[in-house]
Amino acid sequence: MEVVIVPDAKAGGELIAEAMAQLLRRKPDALLGVATGSTPLPIYQALTAKVRAGEVDASRARIAQLDEYVGLPTGHPESYRATVLREVVEPLGLDADAFMGPDGSAEDVQAACEAYDRALSEAGGVDLQLLGIGTDGHIGFNEPCSSIASRTRIKTLTEQTIADNARFFDGDLSQVPRHVITQGIGTILEARHLVLLATGEGKADAVAATVEGPVASVVPASALQLHPHATVVVDEGAASKLKLTQYFRHTFANKPEWQGL
After folding, report:
1. Given strand 153-156, what is the order of strands in its sheet?
2. Under a CB-based contact definition with an 8 Å cutoff, are residues 7 and 236 in contact?
3. Known catalytic residue: 143?
4. PROSITE patterns this protein is in (predicted)?
5. Is 182 part of a structural domain of the chain?
6. What digits encode the pLDDT tens for the residues 119-169?
7. Which residue, 37, 172, 196, 238, is the most exposed by fewest CB within 10 angstroms?
Protein backbone atom coordinates (compact mmCIF):
# COMPACT_ATOMS: atom_id res chain seq x y z
CA MET A 1 0.00 0.00 0.00
CA GLU A 2 1.00 3.64 -0.32
CA VAL A 3 2.02 5.29 2.94
CA VAL A 4 2.24 9.08 3.02
CA ILE A 5 3.66 10.87 6.06
CA VAL A 6 2.42 14.45 6.39
CA PRO A 7 3.33 17.14 8.94
CA ASP A 8 -0.08 17.36 10.55
CA ALA A 9 -3.80 16.66 10.21
CA LYS A 10 -4.41 19.82 8.15
CA ALA A 11 -1.83 18.77 5.55
CA GLY A 12 -3.34 15.30 5.40
CA GLY A 13 -6.79 16.76 4.89
CA GLU A 14 -5.61 19.01 2.07
CA LEU A 15 -3.79 16.16 0.32
CA ILE A 16 -6.80 13.84 0.43
CA ALA A 17 -9.22 16.62 -0.53
CA GLU A 18 -7.14 17.29 -3.64
CA ALA A 19 -7.29 13.59 -4.55
CA MET A 20 -11.08 13.73 -4.19
CA ALA A 21 -11.22 16.92 -6.26
CA GLN A 22 -9.21 15.32 -9.04
CA LEU A 23 -11.52 12.32 -8.99
CA LEU A 24 -14.51 14.63 -9.37
CA ARG A 25 -12.85 16.41 -12.28
CA ARG A 26 -12.43 13.04 -14.04
CA LYS A 27 -15.77 11.64 -12.94
CA PRO A 28 -18.22 14.36 -11.84
CA ASP A 29 -20.80 11.87 -10.52
CA ALA A 30 -18.28 9.86 -8.49
CA LEU A 31 -19.59 8.00 -5.45
CA LEU A 32 -17.55 9.13 -2.45
CA GLY A 33 -17.61 6.93 0.63
CA VAL A 34 -17.29 9.00 3.79
CA ALA A 35 -16.43 8.29 7.40
CA THR A 36 -17.46 10.15 10.55
CA GLY A 37 -15.60 11.22 13.67
CA SER A 38 -13.12 14.04 14.18
CA THR A 39 -10.28 12.67 12.02
CA PRO A 40 -11.81 13.29 8.56
CA LEU A 41 -13.06 16.81 9.33
CA PRO A 42 -9.96 18.49 7.79
CA ILE A 43 -10.70 16.59 4.56
CA TYR A 44 -14.27 17.84 4.35
CA GLN A 45 -13.25 21.38 5.24
CA ALA A 46 -10.54 21.42 2.56
CA LEU A 47 -12.84 19.95 -0.09
CA THR A 48 -15.59 22.44 0.79
CA ALA A 49 -13.08 25.29 0.42
CA LYS A 50 -12.14 24.03 -3.06
CA VAL A 51 -15.80 23.87 -4.08
CA ARG A 52 -16.53 27.37 -2.79
CA ALA A 53 -13.42 28.73 -4.54
CA GLY A 54 -14.61 27.26 -7.84
CA GLU A 55 -11.67 24.86 -8.08
CA VAL A 56 -13.93 21.84 -8.47
CA ASP A 57 -17.61 21.24 -9.23
CA ALA A 58 -19.12 18.77 -6.76
CA SER A 59 -22.74 19.32 -7.78
CA ARG A 60 -23.10 15.83 -9.26
CA ALA A 61 -21.15 14.00 -6.57
CA ARG A 62 -22.80 11.22 -4.61
CA ILE A 63 -22.09 10.42 -0.96
CA ALA A 64 -22.20 6.97 0.65
CA GLN A 65 -22.21 6.34 4.38
CA LEU A 66 -19.80 3.82 5.94
CA ASP A 67 -21.78 2.92 9.04
CA GLU A 68 -24.68 3.89 11.28
CA TYR A 69 -25.82 3.48 14.87
CA VAL A 70 -28.80 1.21 15.45
CA GLY A 71 -31.73 2.49 17.45
CA LEU A 72 -31.14 6.24 17.62
CA PRO A 73 -34.31 8.26 16.95
CA THR A 74 -34.68 9.68 13.44
CA GLY A 75 -32.93 13.03 13.30
CA HIS A 76 -30.78 12.44 16.39
CA PRO A 77 -27.82 14.85 15.99
CA GLU A 78 -25.28 12.09 16.69
CA SER A 79 -26.69 9.64 14.17
CA TYR A 80 -24.20 9.22 11.39
CA ARG A 81 -26.81 10.16 8.81
CA ALA A 82 -27.30 13.53 10.52
CA THR A 83 -23.53 13.92 10.93
CA VAL A 84 -22.79 13.26 7.24
CA LEU A 85 -25.55 15.60 6.13
CA ARG A 86 -24.22 18.31 8.46
CA GLU A 87 -20.50 17.89 7.80
CA VAL A 88 -20.39 16.80 4.15
CA VAL A 89 -23.60 17.03 2.14
CA GLU A 90 -24.73 20.50 3.21
CA PRO A 91 -21.30 22.22 3.11
CA LEU A 92 -20.71 20.86 -0.40
CA GLY A 93 -24.08 22.24 -1.48
CA LEU A 94 -25.48 18.84 -2.42
CA ASP A 95 -29.11 17.80 -2.38
CA ALA A 96 -30.20 15.25 0.19
CA ASP A 97 -30.93 12.77 -2.63
CA ALA A 98 -27.18 12.66 -3.35
CA PHE A 99 -26.79 10.77 -0.08
CA MET A 100 -27.19 7.05 0.56
CA GLY A 101 -26.83 5.13 3.80
CA PRO A 102 -28.19 2.20 5.81
CA ASP A 103 -31.40 2.53 7.80
CA GLY A 104 -30.44 2.22 11.46
CA SER A 105 -34.04 2.60 12.59
CA ALA A 106 -35.46 -0.21 10.43
CA GLU A 107 -37.58 -2.85 12.13
CA ASP A 108 -35.71 -5.56 10.22
CA VAL A 109 -32.10 -4.50 10.64
CA GLN A 110 -30.67 -7.50 8.79
CA ALA A 111 -32.84 -6.72 5.77
CA ALA A 112 -31.64 -3.10 5.92
CA CYS A 113 -28.02 -4.30 5.88
CA GLU A 114 -28.60 -6.48 2.84
CA ALA A 115 -30.50 -3.69 1.09
CA TYR A 116 -27.63 -1.24 1.59
CA ASP A 117 -25.07 -3.72 0.29
CA ARG A 118 -27.18 -4.16 -2.86
CA ALA A 119 -27.67 -0.42 -3.21
CA LEU A 120 -23.93 0.21 -3.25
CA SER A 121 -23.48 -2.36 -5.98
CA GLU A 122 -26.40 -1.06 -8.03
CA ALA A 123 -24.97 2.48 -7.76
CA GLY A 124 -21.85 1.27 -9.56
CA GLY A 125 -19.68 0.84 -6.49
CA VAL A 126 -17.76 3.33 -4.37
CA ASP A 127 -15.04 5.21 -6.26
CA LEU A 128 -13.11 6.44 -3.23
CA GLN A 129 -13.75 5.30 0.33
CA LEU A 130 -12.42 7.32 3.24
CA LEU A 131 -11.52 5.39 6.36
CA GLY A 132 -10.41 6.11 9.88
CA ILE A 133 -8.85 3.57 12.19
CA GLY A 134 -9.62 2.70 15.79
CA THR A 135 -7.00 2.28 18.47
CA ASP A 136 -7.64 -1.48 18.18
CA GLY A 137 -7.25 -1.46 14.39
CA HIS A 138 -10.92 -1.48 13.46
CA ILE A 139 -12.23 0.13 10.27
CA GLY A 140 -15.85 1.11 10.00
CA PHE A 141 -17.24 -0.84 12.94
CA ASN A 142 -15.47 -4.04 11.96
CA GLU A 143 -14.02 -4.88 15.34
CA PRO A 144 -11.05 -7.23 15.85
CA CYS A 145 -11.70 -10.78 14.58
CA SER A 146 -14.22 -9.58 11.97
CA SER A 147 -14.16 -11.71 8.84
CA ILE A 148 -12.21 -10.25 5.96
CA ALA A 149 -15.01 -11.49 3.70
CA SER A 150 -17.77 -9.85 5.77
CA ARG A 151 -20.59 -7.88 4.16
CA THR A 152 -22.71 -5.02 5.51
CA ARG A 153 -24.16 -6.27 8.78
CA ILE A 154 -25.10 -5.48 12.38
CA LYS A 155 -22.30 -5.49 14.93
CA THR A 156 -22.03 -5.16 18.71
CA LEU A 157 -19.51 -2.55 19.78
CA THR A 158 -16.65 -3.42 22.10
CA GLU A 159 -16.30 -1.59 25.41
CA GLN A 160 -13.20 0.18 24.02
CA THR A 161 -15.12 1.59 21.05
CA ILE A 162 -18.01 2.61 23.28
CA ALA A 163 -15.55 4.45 25.52
CA ASP A 164 -13.89 6.09 22.49
CA ASN A 165 -17.26 7.31 21.16
CA ALA A 166 -18.62 8.55 24.48
CA ARG A 167 -17.14 11.99 23.78
CA PHE A 168 -19.86 12.51 21.16
CA PHE A 169 -22.51 11.84 23.85
CA ASP A 170 -21.20 14.28 26.48
CA GLY A 171 -19.05 11.53 27.95
CA ASP A 172 -22.10 9.50 29.01
CA LEU A 173 -21.36 5.82 28.25
CA SER A 174 -24.99 4.89 28.83
CA GLN A 175 -26.09 7.02 25.87
CA VAL A 176 -23.79 5.37 23.32
CA PRO A 177 -25.68 2.78 21.25
CA ARG A 178 -24.40 -0.78 21.64
CA HIS A 179 -25.17 -1.89 18.08
CA VAL A 180 -24.34 -0.50 14.65
CA ILE A 181 -24.73 -1.25 10.98
CA THR A 182 -21.40 -1.26 9.21
CA GLN A 183 -20.11 -2.02 5.77
CA GLY A 184 -18.20 -5.27 6.13
CA ILE A 185 -14.53 -5.58 5.30
CA GLY A 186 -15.41 -7.42 2.10
CA THR A 187 -17.78 -4.59 1.14
CA ILE A 188 -15.15 -1.94 1.91
CA LEU A 189 -12.54 -3.73 -0.19
CA GLU A 190 -14.79 -3.42 -3.26
CA ALA A 191 -14.23 0.35 -3.42
CA ARG A 192 -11.86 1.35 -6.21
CA HIS A 193 -9.59 3.44 -3.96
CA LEU A 194 -9.27 3.19 -0.18
CA VAL A 195 -7.82 6.16 1.69
CA LEU A 196 -7.16 5.87 5.43
CA LEU A 197 -6.25 8.94 7.47
CA ALA A 198 -4.77 8.53 10.95
CA THR A 199 -3.43 11.23 13.25
CA GLY A 200 -1.88 11.28 16.69
CA GLU A 201 0.34 8.95 18.68
CA GLY A 202 -2.73 7.14 19.99
CA LYS A 203 -3.13 5.53 16.57
CA ALA A 204 0.56 4.64 16.13
CA ASP A 205 0.32 0.99 17.23
CA ALA A 206 -2.74 0.37 15.06
CA VAL A 207 -1.08 1.99 12.03
CA ALA A 208 2.09 -0.06 12.46
CA ALA A 209 0.10 -3.30 12.72
CA THR A 210 -1.96 -2.31 9.67
CA VAL A 211 0.96 -1.38 7.43
CA GLU A 212 3.81 -3.61 8.57
CA GLY A 213 2.12 -6.49 10.35
CA PRO A 214 0.55 -9.61 8.84
CA VAL A 215 -2.94 -9.58 7.36
CA ALA A 216 -4.99 -10.82 10.29
CA SER A 217 -8.59 -10.53 11.42
CA VAL A 218 -7.38 -9.34 14.83
CA VAL A 219 -6.31 -6.11 13.02
CA PRO A 220 -9.19 -5.51 10.59
CA ALA A 221 -7.44 -2.58 8.87
CA SER A 222 -4.62 -4.91 7.82
CA ALA A 223 -7.00 -6.14 5.09
CA LEU A 224 -6.04 -2.96 3.19
CA GLN A 225 -2.85 -4.81 2.27
CA LEU A 226 -5.01 -6.97 -0.03
CA HIS A 227 -6.38 -3.99 -1.98
CA PRO A 228 -4.80 -2.94 -5.31
CA HIS A 229 -5.09 0.79 -4.51
CA ALA A 230 -4.94 1.59 -0.81
CA THR A 231 -3.37 4.74 0.59
CA VAL A 232 -2.57 5.38 4.25
CA VAL A 233 -1.99 9.02 5.18
CA VAL A 234 -0.49 9.59 8.63
CA ASP A 235 0.93 12.48 10.58
CA GLU A 236 4.20 12.26 12.50
CA GLY A 237 2.51 10.97 15.65
CA ALA A 238 0.60 8.20 13.93
CA ALA A 239 3.74 7.23 12.01
CA SER A 240 5.93 7.06 15.11
CA LYS A 241 5.81 3.24 15.48
CA LEU A 242 6.51 2.45 11.82
CA LYS A 243 9.87 0.77 11.18
CA LEU A 244 10.10 1.72 7.51
CA THR A 245 9.58 5.46 7.81
CA GLN A 246 12.85 6.17 6.03
CA TYR A 247 11.56 4.26 3.01
CA PHE A 248 8.20 6.01 3.09
CA ARG A 249 9.80 9.44 3.37
CA HIS A 250 12.20 8.65 0.52
CA THR A 251 9.40 7.37 -1.70
CA PHE A 252 7.00 10.25 -1.22
CA ALA A 253 9.19 13.24 -0.43
CA ASN A 254 9.91 16.02 -2.93
CA LYS A 255 7.23 15.14 -5.44
CA PRO A 256 5.76 18.47 -6.57
CA GLU A 257 4.51 16.74 -9.70
CA TRP A 258 2.11 14.62 -7.65
CA GLN A 259 -1.38 14.55 -9.05
CA GLY A 260 -3.23 13.38 -5.97
CA LEU A 261 -2.93 9.94 -4.45
Report:
1. 67-69, 179-182, 153-156
2. yes
3. yes
4. GLC_GALNAC_ISOMERASE
5. yes
6. 999 999 999 999 999 999 999 999 999 999 999 999 998 887 788 889 889
7. 172
Catalytic residue among 14, 117, 127, 143: 143
237-256 per-residue burial string, b: 16 or more CB within 10 A, e: under 16: bbbbbbeeeeebeeebeeee
Q: Are 203 and 131 a contacting pair, CB within 8 Å? A: no
Q: How many residues does the chain have?
A: 261
Task: Count the domains in the chain.
Answer: 1
Report pTM. 0.92
pLDDT category of residue 257 using cuts at 50, 70 and 90: very low
**Beta strand 99-100 pairing with 62-65:** parallel
Answer whether residue 260 is part of any domain.
no
18 an active-site residue?
no
The yes-or-no answer on residue 136 being catalytic is yes
Is residue 75 one of the residues assigned to a domain?
yes
> Of the listed 14, 18, 67, 164, which one is catalytic?
67
Q: What is the rounded distance in angstroms from the CA atom of residue 221 to the CA atom of residue 197?
A: 12
CATH number of the domain that 229 lies in?
A: 3.40.50.1360
Which of 211, 203, 208 is closest to 2 using CA atoms?
211
Contact 126, 31 (CB under 8 A): yes
**Within-domain flag for 261:** no
Active site (annotated) includes residue 138: yes
Sheet holding 128-131, edge to edge: 2-6, 230-235, 193-198, 128-131, 31-34, 62-65, 99-100
